[in-house]
Design brief:
- The chain is an alpha/beta fold and 321 residues long.
- It is 31% helix and 11% strand.
- The protein is built from 11 helices and 8 strands.
- Strands 6-5-4-3-2-1-7-8 form an 8-stranded mixed sheet.
- Strand 7 and strand 8 form a beta hairpin.
- It is globular and about 50 Å long.
- The protein binds iron/sulfur cluster (2 copies).
- The site of one iron/sulfur cluster (SF4) has 12 residues, from helix 10.
C-alpha cells in the first residue's frame, strides 16, 4: 500500500483548536469481517490489533471522570473485540449514550446471531455504512454479497424497532462516493435512499449521513495507483469552505486507539498523527483523566480539507445545511 502522509504534510490548512469535549471515539481494533476498497482503517480479517481489557477499563474510568456523555465505538468491526459488550454495558450503566459504527454484515456472522438484540436491549445508536442503495455499487466497494447481507441485517434491526418512529432506537446510514468526487447534497440523497429502500425492501432508517472519502490508507493508496491523488487533493482544497471549520468533529471529539493513545480524530489515528497535549510525542488517555482539553491546538494536515470541502463531512455527516 502506498504511504499518503508524506503527500499531506505541506498543509495550508488553517490552525484550529479544541472546544469542550463531548464525544470519546474509541477504535477497539482493526479486525473486520470485510475488506472494503475505501476503508480508511485498512481493516480486514487478518488484522490482529484489538483493545485489551485494561484499556477498556481506562476508557470507562475516563468517562466516569470527564462527564463526556457520548461514546462512539468504531473499528474495524468493533463487535469483533471480545470486550465490546462489556464496554457497551458499563458505559450505558454510567448513563452514557453509546454509538456502534456497525458494518451490518457482522450481524449475520456465526457467533453474533444475538448481537442485534443486544444492541437494542442496551439502546445503542447504530450508524451503518451503506454506500449506495444499488446492489452492484455496494458489492463493488465493499465485497461480493455485502449488499444482500446488509439488507438482511437492516431487516433484523427494523424488526427490533430500529429506525421506527417513536421506538427511540436510532438507525442511521452512511453514504460515501464510489470515486474521487465530493458527496452529493445530503437531504435529497436521504430522500432517494428512503424511497428505494422502502419500496424495494420495506426498510426504514432515521437519517443518512454523507461523508467524503479521505485521501488516506486504502482509498488514498488507490488514488496514487491510478494517478488521481493530486487531482482529488486539488478538488478538496478548491472546495474548502471556511464556515465548516467551526464544526469539524475534532473540535469536540477525542479519538483513542486500541492501545489507549489519543488523536484528534480517527483519520489522524490512521495517519499516526497523535494529538499533542505536552512535550511528549504521544499521550495516553489515562493521562488525560480530569484534564480540561479546551483551547488545545488540533494537529492538522492536508487531509483535513476532506472535512471542510463543500458541504463538509464528519462522523455526523454533512456540516453545512
Ligand atoms: S470500511 Fe468498515 S466494514 Fe469495510 S473494511 Fe473498513 S472497517 Fe471493515
Ligand atoms: S481530519 Fe481530523 S483533525 Fe483534520 S479537520 Fe477532520 S476531524 Fe479535524
Amino acid at each position: 500500500m502506498h504511504a499518503t502522509l508524506p503527500l499531506l504534510r505541506s498543509s495550508g490548512f488553517p490552525a484550529i483548536a479544541r472546544k469542550r469535549l463531548e464525544t470519546l471515539q474509541v477504535n477497539v481494533g482493526y479486525k473486520c469481517n470485510q475488506t472494503c476498497v475505501h476503508c480508511h482503517v485498512n481493516a480486514g480479517p487478518t488484522r490482529t490489533e484489538l483493545m485489551a481489557r485494561e484499556v477498556v477499563d481506562t476508557v470507562l474510568a475516563f468517562l466516569r471522570g470527564s462527564g463526556v456523555r457520548t461514546l462512539d465505538i468504531t473499528g474495524g468491526a468493533p463487535e469483533l473485540n471480545p470486550h465490546f459488550r462489556v464496554l457497551v454495558q458499563e458505559a450505558r450503566e454510567l448513563g452514557v449514550h453509546v454509538i456502534d459504527r456497525c458494518n451490518l454484515t457482522i450481524l449475520n456472522e456465526p457467533g453474533h446471531e444475538d448481537l442485534a438484540e443486544f444492541l437494542a436491549a442496551q439502546r445503542v445508536e447504530v450508524i451503518a455504512s451503506l454506500p449506495c442503495y444499488l446492489e452492484d455499487n455496494v458489492d463493488r466497494q465493499r465485497g461480493k454479497g455485502v449488499f444482500s447481507g446488509s439488507i438482511a441485517a437492516l431487516k433484523k434491526l427494523n424488526a427490533l424497532g430500529y429506525g421506527m418512529a417513536d421506538s427511540g432506537l436510532v438507525l442511521s446510514l452512511v453514504y460515501n462516493p464510489q470515486g474521487p468526487t465530493l458527496p452529493p447534497a445530503q437531504a435529497p440523497l436521504e430522500d432517494a435512499y428512503r424511497s428505494h429502500l422502502r419500496s424495494g425492501y420495506g426498510i426504514e432508517f432515521n437519517r443518512l449521513y454523507t461523508l467524503a472519502n479521505m485521501p488516506i490508507q486504502r482509498f488514498g493508496s488507490m488514488l496514487i495507483s491510478k494517478g488521481q491523488f493530486n487531482a482529488y487533493m486539488n478538488l478538496l482544497r478548491d472546495s474548502h469552505r471556511e464556515e465548516n471549520l467551526d464544526q469539524v468533529m475534532c473540535r469536540t471529539l477525542l479519538s483513542v486507539d486500541w492501545q489507549g493513545y489519543v488523536y484528534d480524530c480517527d483519520f489522524n489515528q490512521m495517519l499516526e498523527l497523535p494529538a499533542r497535549f505536552g512535550p511528549q510525542p504521544r499521550t495516553k488517555l489515562a493521562d488525560l483523566v480530569g484534564r480540561n482539553l479546551e483551547g488545545r491546538p488540533i494537529v492538522v494536515a492536508d487531509h483535513c480539507f476532506g472535512c471542510t470541502a463543500g458541504q463538509g463531512s464528519s462522523c455526523g455527516g454533512a456540516l453545512a445545511s
